[in-house]
């Protein structure tokens, strides 16, 4: 019986250790999504409580224009007029869209688009920093860099996890994060 209890204690410790390792924070890229909250009311001003379908589209113009992204959400719960969804949860939003103003178009249950379209705020435009101008392919090349500034040859070192690139007397090297 004592051996059986010891085995159970060891097994529980192994399981807890495994769960701890699995649940450690990841350094993966953050999701490119946008939270969107809305308020629906009837034409007489009453708050809606219902389950609806929402079609969402991004355009580059406040009226007309070309649809550059879309996704549809079904079974969206609306309570006392309030609903919340996540744009990009079903269809990824390309980061290349965030280098221009964007306007959100909304269709409820397949009806006409609600107007006016809503402008997407500067928070979404910050997603463009992931592919900063001139760095779309992840390299430091192009007319923005001259011989007097950073060049790919100066950044040839590949640092290990937890290290950063630092300037030393003889050039560039990897060092510990301060």
Outline of this structure?
A hairpin with a 7-residue loop joins strand 2 (50-59) and strand 3.
Task: Tell me what the structure shows.
The chain has 178 residues and is an alpha+beta fold. Helix content is 14%, strand content 30%. It has helices at residues 2-22, 122-125; strands at 34-39, 50-59, 67-78, 82-87, 103-108, 118-119, 163-168, 171-176. The longest helix is centred in the N-terminal third of the chain and has 21 residues, at 2-22. 8% of the residues are buried.
Q: Which characteristics define this entry?
A:
2 helices, 8 strands, alpha+beta, four-stranded antiparallel beta sheet, 178 residues, two-stranded antiparallel sheet
């Amino acid at each position: 019986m004592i051996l059986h209890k010891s085995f159970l204690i060891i097994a529980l410790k192994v399981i807890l250790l495994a769960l701890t390792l699995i649940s450690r924070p990841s350094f993966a890229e953050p999701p490119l999504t946008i939270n969107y909250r809305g308020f629906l009311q009837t034409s007489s001003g009453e708050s809606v409580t219902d389950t609806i379908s929402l079609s969402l589209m991004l355009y580059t113009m406040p009226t007309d224009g070309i649809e550059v992204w879309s996704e549809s959400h079904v079974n969206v719960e609306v309570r006392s007029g309030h609903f919340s969804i996540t744009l990009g949860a079903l269809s990824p939003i390309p980061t290349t869209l965030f280098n221009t103003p964007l306007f959100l178009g909304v269709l409820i249950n397949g009806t006409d688009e609600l107007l006016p379209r809503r402008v997407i705020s500067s928070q979404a435009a910050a997603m463009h920093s992931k592919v900063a101008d001139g760095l779309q392919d992840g390299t430091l090349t192009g007319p923005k860099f001259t011989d007097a500034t950073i060049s790919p040859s100066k950044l040839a070192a590949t640092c290990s996890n937890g290290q950063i690139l630092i300037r030393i007397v003889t050039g560039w090297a990897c060092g510990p994060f301060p």
